[in-house]
Amino acid sequence: MSMTKSQPIKEQDNRELFHIVENLCIADGIPMPKIYIMPEAQPNAFATGRDYQHSVVAVTIGLLQKLNKSELEGVIAHELSHIKNKDMLLQTVVVALVGMVAILADFFLRMSMFGGLRSNDDDSKTGVIMLVLSLAAAILAPIAATLIQLSISRKREFLADASGALLTRYPEGLASALEKISADPTPMRAASNSTAHLFISSPFKGKKGSSWLVKLFMTHPPIGERIAALRGMKV
Fold it and tell me: What is the CATH superfamily name and number for domain 7-87+149-231?
């Protein structure tokens, strides 16, 4: 929250936003999270927190200014779904596993290097082959783990979209909100690679490739695919 310069609010600070969050929490049967507002003109939002007692929903000033009520409800429902689906906890576990894979890959590389140095002439060729294989594994294993992490992140976005649409019973609200958010060119001053995956839409604006390779390294699914999925829902 400090990185995004978000500030907590109470009911009297923004009654409409507070009541939207409150009503959706009652409908979904989850405790009320803390509500924060980011001083950013870009329309965007995110949720974080390891459990219900420490959950937070944050929206930008731009989101409040540029979305109508049904669109805002769709965005809030999406973020509450992240909380209910325990996506923050899942992402923490995945990040820890990715880090463990990187550490293990480095460990086996060092073991192979030291083993190669102690090898005699008879098995030097085997040592070289093992060293090359270990080097390849040390490079490829963390990349593969990261790709799995990003894939999970994209799948959870689709799940939060669907869960949010089922909560509001109005998929078009979220679909319309995603259209406005993606079309808005306003940059985010607090955009950071370390927090970009939390937002409902990537805070980095600009042209994005659509090739299969580019999609592999995206934290979010393409907006067009998300909108199409929402408009194809029957609730």
Answer: Metalloproteases ("zincins"), catalytic domain (3.30.2010.10)
